[in-house]
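Title: [Solved] Peptide chain release factor 3 3D structure

Original question kept below for reference.
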Amino acid sequence: MPDTRPRRTFAVISHPDAGKSTLTEALALHARAINEAGAVHGKGDRRATVSDWMAMEKARGISITSAALQFAYRDHVVNLVDTPGHSDFSEDTYRVLSAVDSAVMLVDAGKGLEPQTLKLFRVCALRGIPVITVINKWDRPGLSALGLMDLIQEKIGLRPTPLTWPVGEAGDFRGVLDRRTGDFVKYTRTAGGATRAPEQRLGADEVGEDDLQVWRDAVEEHELLGLDEADHDQEQFLAGRTTPVMFASALQNFGVAQLLDLLLDLAPAPGGTEGVDGSVRAVDDDFSAFVFKVQSGMNTAHRDRLAYARVVSGTFERGMVVTHAATGRPFATKFAQAVFGRETTSVETAEPGDIIGLVNATALRVGDTIYVGEPIEYPPVPTFAPEHFVTASAGDIGRYKQFRRGIEQLDQEGVVQVLRSDLRGDQNPVLAAVGPMQFEVVEDRMTNEFNAPIRFNRLDYQLARRTDAAGAEALAGMRGVEVLQRSDGTRLALFVDQWRAKVTARDNPDVMLEALPAGG
Ligand code: GDP
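Solution (posted by the thread starter after getting help):
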């Protein structure tokens, strides 16, 4: 029987170190603890939900790849799609954001709005994804709550509408005032460890002597906020004009249950999605999904290749034969998997909002649509303007075959953009990246996974503009510019600097030179 409970599909966006991994684990463990009431989970379980798998990720302490975490909470199923934190992986992160219905913006109370948070927020704004803000690490000294609200308003242009307000300043966390009920949610240190919510709900008249002074301060600020039109408005939130705010300590588990409740109560459910032809596929239509990420090398024991797809409409049933929109060919889904971090299990059915992993999906590329019934094709996942360019060549010419296969694979996964031209020939593709760390990933995977050492030569180009066949012809032979073709067919004109791009555009008004969306 398909599990048709309502879904919530979201991602956490944050600057590295804001506490995303800590929060992710706390959310999953809390939901699990509720579901398996009385069960005790130790440290070992905590690790099992961690989604980073590459040795390199461990060494760097960052999460490079994305996976989805699914858990049941109350009468819902929650899908948390993991995003990598490092700015060099922004392309990957942007793709992931195409698969969610809402985002949780995690802010370090001591640091305020950091660059990566701002970038990611802009993508959410661009895509109209509603954002819930969580001010984390309130157990540590940090900025003032009102100061943080000003920052959100000023830097991201969203009106903050706090749902809770801290009782006690950062570093002296007594709990929060629930602005909807007026209750005091008191922070308590309980013995339950990581799986227990250390929260106790008290009426305003039950606030203890010790907390009375800070409680009164919180009430005063809460009333000020009310005058300032900072109360939650569901319509404004869904329209991307306001952001509900709550205060938490992911490490202490405080606010974790509140956040889950908030997601269920306020965050949007999966909805109908528009195809490239403008038609809308409703969630209860026939099955359709789009691929937002392709990955391989998760299991070194055997070669595997996983395409992550988000179900848009209908019920997915393992074994069903779907149509691959890009080729019109049938695609068998016998080996569909649920992808929860390191663990993979077969998935029997999935509903709109869920993420499925399709094994050995060699034909599937990022952005592809699969469907049954009436044809549908969803808009491509955006690619971003590359700013770093190298030529790649096989480090060991005897292993050229492996080199070529590796490049092709990494291209299909979208690890880097691969550009070619007749002039340069096939043996020395140009690799283009939004951030230079993408090249490190290429080097690491080429060496360890494909056993094909690779050599890079830096190119002096700094930016790319989209052009067409006529543009390629017109620009051929000009100084400071080179036109190459990306594997998706897009022609990119690479320029040595901004100045050269401007002059070329001025002198060649008929040549198409389009800016690409800015990435990292
Ligand atoms: P990520 O890079 O965003 O995934 O951040 P992590 O979850 O790895 O957290 C970074 C560091 O901040 C770790 O040392 C965490 O223990 C710590 N941390 C996370 N949340 C909190 C919190 O609420 N309070 C305090 N004091 N530390 C936290």
